[in-house]
Amino acid sequence: MTDLKGILEELDGVDEQLIQLFLRRMEIIDKVSAYRLSRGIPVMQPVKEQDDLSLRAKKAAPYLYGYADEYVKFLLSMSRHMQETMIRRAVEDEMRDNRKDDSDLFFLDE
């Protein structure tokens, strides 16, 4: 039987992999945000999200389904939040840049 220290070390290794995968996932979400922004596609896609949730969570063993369901919901929620934040910032930056450009109109060379 493995001792608790060995089990916890194994868990730490899995946690490290999860963090790396999470960071990679968020890099991809950044690309999704840019794509959606450039094409005016809304962040919220309820049908796709429900399909994703159903497919991903059901891969878990039946006794873990509820936990897997909550985990996937949390990931999707974070992804939506990140996309909304990135798109909002991009729009705000564009509006700020446009205001700067417009302010030049008020100063005429004499």
Give structural notes.
The chain is mainly α and 110 residues long. It has three helices and no strands. It has helices spanning 4-39, 46-57, 65-103.
Task: From the structure above, extract its key features.
110 residues, mainly alpha, Chorismate Mutase Domain, subunit A, 3 helices, 79% helix
Topology:
Layout: H1 4-39, H2 46-57, H3 65-103
Helix pairs in contact: 1-3, 2-3
If you consult CATH, what is the topology? Chorismate Mutase Domain, subunit A
Distance between the termini: 88 Å
SS summary, helix count: 3
| Number of structurally distinct domains | 1
The whole-angstrom Rg is 22 Å
- SSE class: mainly alpha
Q: At CATH's second level, what is the architecture?
A: Up-down Bundle
Chain-averaged pLDDT: 87
Low-confidence stretches: none
Order of helices and strands: HHH
Largest sheet: none
Q: Share of helix among residues? A: over 70%
Number of strands: 0
- Sum up the overall morphology in one term: elongated
CATH superfamily label: Chorismate mutase
The CATH class name reads Mainly Alpha
Summarize the structure.
The protein is an all-alpha fold and 110 residues long.
